[in-house]
Amino acid sequence: MRRRSTPVPRDAVHHPVFARFYARLSVTADLRGGLAGRRDELLAGLSGRVIEIGAGNGLNFAHYPGAVSEVVAIEPERGLRQMAAGAAMRAEVPVDVVPGTAEALPVKSEAFDAAVASLVLCTVRDLPRALSEIKRVLRPGGELRFFEHTLAPEGKLARVQRAADRTLWPLLFGGCHTARDTVAAIEAAGFELGTYRRFRVPEKGVRLPSSPCVIGVARRSAVVDRAAG
């Protein structure tokens, strides 16, 4: 029997000040920082039904290819969800914006051909549980496309990231934890890693705790052990 995830309160996440700040910052980063091109790279070649985890203000919506038949966009923060709903109306593919958290996705198991996580896995409260939920809702062989902050290689910046995560950084930036080893967490969740690459945002200039990023693809195994779980 397929299990259903438990519905969550409408405002399970509430960061109104950060939401307004993020909306302005993200648009500027897309226009001047080259992140629009990263979104094209992240979503290229997708088709079928897609679930987007933590859709924010909906900047990915304009970049989905026409082969995508539907996007279910999960966003827990009310202000960002309202902005995403506006972006959904302008999208060229059907987008349904709904409340929910990554740890309890309000959708059926094995319902999607692909999942998209874009600058959100750093903010979830329980990363292993969130990845387990993403795996649950993907069909066997389905893809996880990810574009995330990640822990830098060992050195000064990695130490700065760990120190930032223990102080005010998550509080000031909507729960963002920059010292998470995103690729290792995805692999530990049972996904099959595909290609991925690391880079910095911005590519030049000051190195912030949030600068190290990774973009890539992973897959849920096409072979599912129905006896497990």
TrEMBL record:
InterPro entries in the cross-refs: Methyltransf_11, SAM-dependent_MTases_sf, Thiol_S-MT
A Gene Ontology molecular function term of the record: S-adenosylmethionine-dependent methyltransferase activity
GO biological process: methylation
Keyword S-adenosyl-L-methionine part of the UniProt annotation: no
Keyword Transferase recorded: yes
Gene3D superfamilies: Vaccinia Virus protein VP39
Keywords, alphabetical: Methyltransferase, Transferase
Ranges where the Methyltransferase type domain occurs: 52-145
SUPFAM superfamilies associated with the record: S-adenosyl-L-methionine-dependent methyltransferases
Full protein name: Methyltransferase type 11
Organism: Streptomyces pratensis (strain ATCC 33331 / IAF-45CD)
Lineage: Bacteria, Bacillati, Actinomycetota, Actinomycetes, Kitasatosporales
